Amino acid sequence: MVEDHQMVAAALADTLRAHGFAVAGITDDGNDAVRIVQQSHIDIVILDLRLGETHDASAFIPRIINASPNTKVLVLSAWSDDWSVARAVEAGCHGYLVKDQSVKELIDGIHGVARGDAVFAPTVMSTVLKLLRPGSTSSESLTPRETEVLQRLADGSTTDLIAADLFVSVNTVRNHIHNIIRKLNVHSRLEAVATGIRNGLIQVH
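RESULT FIELD:
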């Protein structure tokens, strides 16, 4: 569990233990979370999206997944605005719940993520659907490399990781992403991924 409010973390840990979960560790540091998943078998990381006053913890999501590919990341946040949700989804989170939900919804959400389901709070789901609103796909086709980049975005890879895997510069990957967004006539990476899936250009793994 990655949570910077100690009372919230302690209460949540007690609640989870009471429902049969083993809480392997509690930290307020995303770097520490990465280290923990590298060293221990962790099924799910529950991640507060804001650590401290301004720290955006979504950057730790791909790092956690890269360090432990079988670990699921469930965001539990007080924030449900478009920007926060988009950042978390683009980073590859497996679910997004908000802190004003009931304990039952949290427990059900954890079980859902453990099964491999994508779990979103109702308010967040409406935001995700708005972000993924259909756009009219351009008749201009993606190149094989652009399709590969789009698939890697759908798999949760960051720009830096894609660049490293493809042995190209980060700027080259950014240019590919810019071209993908333009060709698909969308406004963001998230919309590009959704459009690619809907149109059969890429697959959900």
